[in-house]
Write a structure and sequence with these properties.
The chain is an alpha/beta fold and about 180 residues long. It has helices at about 15-25, 115-120, 135-145, 150-160, 165-180, and strands at about 1-10, 30-40, 45-55, 70, 90-95, 110-115, 180. A seven-stranded mixed β-sheet has the order 2-3-1-4-5-6-7, covered by helices on one side. Strand 2 (about 30-40) and strand 3 form a beta hairpin.
């Protein structure tokens, strides 16, 4: 089983990202579940969403405490919360940022970076000052983890995103090709 924890802020699309990734896994013929956890529902408040993907039926129904991967939609959250809490050694971290802006020297994890915000702005996904980065970051996530196929992700975006489907799919493809990895 692969367990993924997505950290973002209200309005960035973390919850929808978890649903799209779970849908892509189902299109790949796998079992999946996605669910959010958040306090006050307001734009800008910290949000956490979870995704489980497995080849077998998933019977667990609780939040993910020891993820295989974390996805960070806003790197400023690193200063507010211990995002790596419970993260397994050798796990993957995908961050919406230019390569290694945090001066990452932690060799316990596989770090990947993509400027999902710039990609989302390019395709006019959300306002320029607060782009919706969910589909962009998912392209980077599947490149870094190989958890689902790109075609399945694109099909899930087409099924799940009500507007700007082509732009969202192009953003995911661009992030897929532009992610920069720092493997251990």
């Amino acid at each position: 089983m692969i367990e993924i924890r997505i950290h973002g802020r209200g309005g960035q699309g973390a919850v929808i990202a978890s649903k799209i990734l779970a849908q892509a896994a189902m299109l790949d013929g796998r079992f999946s579940q996605s669910f959010p956890a958040f306090g006050g529902e307001r734009r800008g408040a910290p949000v956490v969403a979870y995704v489980r993907i497995d080849d077998q039926r998933i019977r667990m129904r609780y939040q993910i405490y020891k993820p295989d991967c974390i996805v960070v939609l806003d790197p400023k959250l690193f200063k507010m919360v211990d995002l790596t809490a419970g993260l397994k050694e050798g796990s993957t971290i995908v961050v919406n940022s230019s390569p290694n802006p945090l001066s990452v020297e932690d060799q316990h994890y596989k770090w990947f970076f993509v400027d999902a915000s710039s990609i989302s702005r390019k395709y006019e996904l959300g306002p320029k000052t607060a782009p919706i980065v969910n589909t962009s970051i998912l392209g980077a996530v599947i490149q870094a983890t190989e958890v689902v196929k790109l075609d399945s992700l694109l099909a899930a975006i087409k099924e799940s995103v009500p507007s700007k489907q082509e732009e969202n799919m192009e953003a995911a493809k661009q992030a897929y090709t532009q992610v920069v990895g720092m493997r251990t």
